[in-house]
DNA sequence: CTTGATTGCGTTACCGTTCACGCCTCGCAA
DNA sequence: TTGCGAGGCGTGAACGGTAACGCAATCAAG
């Protein structure tokens, strides 16, 4: 007569039977709800522990119409850039607040489908890493329709969504101004792909800041953010035969590639050419010469994205705004002071 | 009388009502099952599309007792090592086969809890990245009890679980033998943390191979796989004043740090000291000098892990074995040939 | 003309939670 | 005594799918 639970996971009704109460009372006990006698709660919790009970999340999801899962979508990221995002930080931050995180990589035309899919999985909120995406009105609309808060993990000036990203104009200004301050007047550029919002803004800032100082902008070539593309872009720049004493690279990867190309062509860094990168990657301090760069902590950014997203989920009237972080100049030895 | 579906997601019963059939027929149509008239199926699919229907995954999970979700657990990874794992590859591979992937980072004592938790979320399978874990018998047992296949994303010789990893002894042999072939007789080492199974095996291989050749192993210091620790380990080695002409580093990160330290102390690479790394990180070809290293493609490894895991899930009688991948020596310019 | 298999579809139960109610009891104030 | 609020708990439905089974109609074979 003993309905042995062999192989099967125990349910709240199994606990209820053993405790001599209804399944609802068990539910109350397990969820720390009020209106239950302290001893009853204790007894139920003990039985639950003894049975090795763990609630079935699917049932919980179905009943509560939510999943406590966040989803991160990487949209059309260059392989070299992918997972500058720190999945670990996001997972940890989310876990502390009771959520799990899922990651997916998609193409721009799949964003809508991804939101639909997330809705069908009762995903509570979504982070979007889409550095090429300019017009996100439709996405904001769909997210709103499905009641899924969305936070962008980059900075797009015209975004209708919540954003967390670094001040791009300020970062680019830091880089170029530093070179100007050190007396450079011929400043070349290896930009990121200009479809990237950030790359385009940096390019424009580079150009404008030089022109505002009465200086003709040096040659500029676009890379794809990979080390290799930086190497090749530099070969291209050298072919132009337009002289330059300094280079702004779109990220540290390309700066490294460019330095390699310069060294292979007998140019010394920083004596012949000064170089500034972006991001302050881990290796930046250890290459030869140690790289002067604009630090943008992705860890910090990803932590804030996660916290903000959860805030939006749990507090419906949290306002949507653009959270702008400040990058900082890290001076090492890849820039020569021409004033000295 | 029209029960308008405003705001609510349509269900199969809504579709059924519109199509004039039962919800079961709709289910059959949506799941491509047999025993349904072609026109009925078409009509139902059209209505589903028009309604923007997407199945509720929670309901599906509850009913099917599974989730089509894989979980990847990173166990106690040094920050520097974390996400050498390529989440993108795993996600993509899984997606092609109808699964999603979740990532989490945990400590060793949380592994059991993580499996329990995965079971309660009806997770179909788990990948474990636990390079420090030697005895995994208990974990294998718990996984088996909860009917969750587990694949380790590293190579542990005594593992009871399915494993996918690179041949550590062979990799270390490649590195040391290469140095011996080039005439080196004083070979130092910067190892990874010796609690790491792989680090310990490499260390032993380094030692044994040298002794087998009648050579006294050079000095050895352990780092933590970060660039910085490589730098500091080299300072330590230099302090010992034991001369060496070659260095084996536990990974490219530490090789880079070590090179930096050597250069700062006026040693030229490879003229004074030759260096071999491990992994063939993206930047390895671009630092100065380009680094000779042992290539281990994590992308390939992660793809295989994912495919193997799904195979284990879908085919209950798939056998459990250790899948050993072969690393390869990539020769660049950081090793000097003393025979020439 | 019966038999039996097959096709096409419906009915009902079930998965394991939470939620909306409602019922009893007890204590306390009117 | 009555009324009433609150504490403690139970009952039944709901969530949205899938699974098991049943049943009528059709059709080919005997």
- Secondary-structure element string of chain A: HHHHEHEHEHEEHEHEHEHEEHEE
Biggest interface and residues each: A-B, 50 and 50 residues
**How many distinct helices of chain A?**
12
Indicate the proportion of strand residues of chain A: 15-25%
What is the residue-averaged pLDDT of chain A? 93
Most strands sheet of chain A: 6 strands, parallel
Oligomer: homodimer
Write out the strand line-up for the largest beta sheet of chain A, numbering strands in chain order.
Answer: 2-1-3-4-5-11
* Radius of gyration over C-alpha positions of chain A, nearest whole angstrom: 27 Å
Shape descriptor of chain A reads elongated
Distance between the termini of chain A: 94 Å
Helix content of chain A: 40-55%
Structural class computed from helices and strand pairing of chain A? alpha/beta
Please tally the β strands of chain A and state the result.
12
**Stretches of chain A where pLDDT falls below 50 for ≥5 residues?**
1-5
Task: Describe, in plain words, how this protein is organized in 3D.
The structure is a homodimer of 340-residue chains. Chain A contains twelve helices and twelve strands. Chain A is α/β, with parallel strands linked by helices. In chain A, the strands form two sheets. A six-stranded parallel sheet of chain A has the order 2-1-3-4-5-11, with helices on both faces. In chain A, strand 8, helix 11 and strand 9 form a beta-alpha-beta unit. In chain A, helix 5 runs parallel beside helix 12. The radius of gyration of chain A is 27 Å and the shape is elongated. The N terminus of chain A is likely disordered. At the A-B interface, helix 4, helix 5, strand 2, helix 6 and helix 10 of A face helix 4, helix 5, strand 2, helix 6 and helix 10 of B. Chain A binds a DNA duplex (30 and 30 nucleotides) through helix 2 and helix 4.
């Amino acid at each position: 007569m003993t309905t042995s639970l062999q192989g099967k996971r125990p349910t709240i009704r199994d606990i209820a039977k053993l405790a001599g109460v209804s399944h609802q009372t068990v539910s109350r006990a397990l969820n720390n709800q009020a209106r239950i006698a302290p001893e009853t709660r204790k007894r139920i919790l003990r039985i639950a522990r003894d049975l090795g009970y763990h609630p079935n999340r699917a049932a919980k999801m179905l009943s509560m119409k939510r999943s406590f899962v966040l989803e991160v979508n990487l949209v059309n990221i260059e392989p070299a850039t992918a997972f500058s995002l720190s999945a670990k930080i996001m997972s940890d931050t989310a876990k502390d607040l009771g959520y799990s995180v899922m990651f997916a990589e998609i193409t721009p035309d799949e964003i809508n489908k991804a939101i639909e899919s997330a809705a069908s999985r009762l995903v509570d909120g979504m982070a979007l890493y889409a550095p090429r995406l300019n017009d996100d009105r439709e996405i904001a609309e769909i997210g709103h329709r499905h009641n899924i808060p969305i936070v962008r993990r980059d900075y797009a000036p015209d975004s209708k969504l919540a954003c967390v990203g670094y001040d791009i104009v300020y970062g680019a200004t830091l880089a170029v101004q530093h070179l100007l301050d050190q007396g450079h007047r011929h400043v070349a550029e290896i930009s990121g792909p200009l479809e990237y919002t950030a790359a385009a803004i940096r390019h424009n800032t580079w150009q404008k800041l030089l022109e505002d100082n009465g200086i003709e902008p040096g040659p500029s070539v676009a890379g794809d953010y990979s080390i290799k593309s930086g190497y090749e872009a530099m070969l291209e720049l050298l072919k132009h035969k337009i002289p330059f004493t300094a280079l702004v690279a779109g990220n540290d990867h390309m700066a490294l590639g460019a330095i390699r190309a310069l060294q292979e062509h007998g140019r010394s860094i920083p004596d012949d050419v000064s170089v500034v990168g972006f991001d302050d990657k881990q290796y930046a301090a250890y290459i030869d010469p140690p790289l002067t760069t604009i630090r943008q902590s992705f860890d910090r950014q990803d932590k804030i994205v996660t916290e903000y997203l959860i805030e939006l989920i749990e507090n419906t009237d949290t306002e949507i705004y653009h959270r702008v972080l400040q990058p900082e100049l890290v001076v090492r030895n890849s820039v020569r002071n021409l004033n000295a």
